Each structure stands twice: as structure tokens, then as C-alpha cells.
């Protein structure tokens, strides 16, 4: 009974089929194939209105998706760029840390710490720690701290440098401070730093020469020692 | 008047900002020695921001008109705990709670002489507590 009161629309099953197919295309983001299917039907009836509305939705959905994809690609590119930048910053930070206390093994058992740039209390504390650790790990016999590049130091920081030299002696190595400039020399004597047991030389070159001379003497001494023993035998 | 703010995010800014400050001081007419002193003070204050502050910035102001012959001010502003006792903290080997245990000095990264160095090198040192932070200002007079 009810069925007679509701108006029916007759649709060819092929049209219905093509709408279903179009839907399945749309569901997998194949918007172009979907629209091509929908435009096939030329008839003008109530069902075709549904088809047109459907086509409009699909077109808009397709455009929105394409826009979203473009934005996503841009975002990804920006992210990659940002990550690359972060990596650079991390590398630079590591480089700065390393460069702030560059310890070079200039000769077997001889470490050199060239100090350049701004020396503040924190950096001098870091230098002490790194130098002492390296002396132990490399079994160094001598450390040359070259401060040619430093014009100004706070009095307490300068005092700490001399303390660093004493700490090196405690580890059984010798510490030479080279390249002290007139300003720092005045600072050190002004605050009355005890300089006993700290060797100071004019330049890094003098320090290296001293080391070579001393080790040469050592070799000569050993040679004469062995020669004497051979004579005794 | 030339005013520049540098955010301090980590150790690398301590290095870059202090060397920048040294250059600016030289351009302002400071001799090499005084310019290096400005750089050391910036380095100490920036190190303190990294160590004690949560975040902060260094503001450099080069004022040629300040009497008598112009001055450079280094403002270190940070969001972090206040210095409880400035007089105590300025004594070498102390922090704001008193003498630092010598065994801890190296481990805490520094000598405890930073603020002392700032006071020795700058012509004037000012401290101001602020809402949720503090500002330390060091002044250098152009001579």
C-alpha cells in the first residue's frame, strides 16, 4: 500500500552501476577516473541531479586533497631543511667545544695546548680538566700551555692557569707555560702568585727545544751508562 | 645609540656573542686590551646564564653620548633563580650560598670567580631583581 504513495524514479541499472563504480574510484583517491565515469550519462532527470551534485563534491574533494598534498610536501621539505640546520648547529657546537681546548700531541709524550680567544673562568676550568685527563690517557711526560694569543686575563683566571701547571706536576708530568705577554706577567706578579715549580719560556718553540735538548741528554746519559756497563763486563 | 640583544641558548652563543662584543668594543674606540676585557665580561655573564638561568639574553648598548665620553653597557638578563646573596657570590671561590667545596669546583664547570672577574674588569656593576628573573649590568666607560 505504502509503495504506491511514494513516487519512484526509474534508473537504468547501468547508470546505478557506474555511480557505484565512480564511488569506488573516489574511495581510492582516483578522482579523474571517477569524474570521467560520472560525465558519461547525458540524461536529464532527478537521478542526474544527484550525479551532478556527486560530481561537484568529488571535484572539490580532489582539489582539496591535491592542495593538502602540496602543503604536506612543502612541510616535509621545510622539516628536512630544519633538521639539516639543527644538525649543523650540533656539529658547530661540538666543534666549538673541541676548539676551545685543542690538545695536540706534538711529540711522543709531549702535549701542547695553544690557548687563543677569550678565556673566562669556565673555559679555564674546562681546559684544566681536559688537559689533566689527556695527560693521564696519553701518558704524557710534558705539557706545554702556550698563551701567546692571550692579551688579557682576569687575575683569578691567570692564577688558575698557574694552578693548572702545578696540578700537571702532581700527575708526574712537567708543565711549561710559554708566551706570557707583559700584561699577563704584570697581572701574575701583582697578585703575588707563587711561581715556584712552574717553568715559563718565551715561546712554544723554546719550549719544544728545551724538551728535545733534555731528552737528548737523557739518551746521551743512557748511552754512556750502557757503554760503562759494557766496559765493566 | 646602538643597542643589540643576543639570546643565549648554549655554549656556542657564549663564544660567538663574546667575540662579537669584543669587536663591537673595538669599533667603538676601545683599545685591544679593554675590548678583550669587555669580551671576557660578556663571556662570564653568558656562561652564568647557561649555567644558572633557564633562558636569557645579553644586551649590548653602545652609547657615545653618555657622559663624559660614552660607555658600553653589558646587560645580562635571565629567567632563573635570583642570586640570594650578591656580596657573597662576588667573593672568589664562592657562590651565592658561600664557599664552594674545592672538590666540586671543577665538576660544576667554572671556578666560582666569574662574578668577581666581572666586578674587577668592569667600571661599574649593578644588580637588579626582577619578576621571575634578574639583570646584571656591567658598565665600561670610554676613556
CATH superfamily membership of the largest domain in chain A, which one? Answer: STAS domain
- Structural class of the helices, strands and pairings of chain B? alpha+beta
Order of helices and strands of chain B: EHHEEHEEHHEE
Structural class of chain A: alpha/beta
User: What is the domain total for the residues of chain A?
Assistant: 2
CATH class descriptor name of the largest domain in chain A = Alpha Beta
The end-to-end distance of chain B, rounded to whole angstroms, is 17 Å
Looking across the biggest beta sheet of chain B, what order are the strands in? Answer: 1-2-3-7-6
Count of separate structural domains of chain B = 1
Helical residue percent of chain A?
A: 55-70%
Output the number of helix runs of chain B.
5
CATH architecture of chain B: 2-Layer Sandwich
Oligomer: heterodimer
Portion in beta strands of chain B: 25-35%
Describe the protein's architecture and organization:
The complex is a heterodimer of chains A (233) and B (143). With 233 residues, chain A is α/β, with parallel strands linked by helices. Chain A folds into two domains: 2-96; 104-232, STAS domain (Transcription Regulator spoIIAA, 2-Layer Sandwich). Helices cover 66% and strands 9% of the residues of chain A. Chain A is built from eight helices and five strands; from the N terminus they run ααααββαβαβαβα. Chain A has a five-stranded mixed β-sheet with strand order 1-2-3-4-5, sandwiched between helices. In chain A, helix 6 (155-170) links the parallel strand 3 (142-146) and strand 4 (174-178). In chain A, helix 2 (13-27) packs antiparallel against helix 3 (31-38) and helix 3 packs antiparallel against helix 4 (46-100). The longest helix of chain A has 55 residues, at 46-100. Chain A is rod-shaped. The model of chain A has no long low-confidence stretch (mean pLDDT 85). By secondary structure, chain B is of the alpha+beta class. Chain B has a single domain (2-141), classed as Heat Shock Protein 90 (2-Layer Sandwich). Helices cover 38% and strands 31% of the residues of chain B. Chain B has a five-stranded antiparallel β-sheet with strand order 1-2-3-7-6, with helices on one face. A two-stranded antiparallel ribbon of chain B has the order 4-5. Chain B starts with a strand and ends with a strand. The A-B interface holds A 89, 92-93, 96-97, 100, 117-126, 128-129, 151-157, 160, 183 and B 10-12, 14-15, 18-19, 22, 32-33, 36-37, 39-40, 43-44, 47, 51, 92, 105-106, 109-114, 116-117, 120-121.
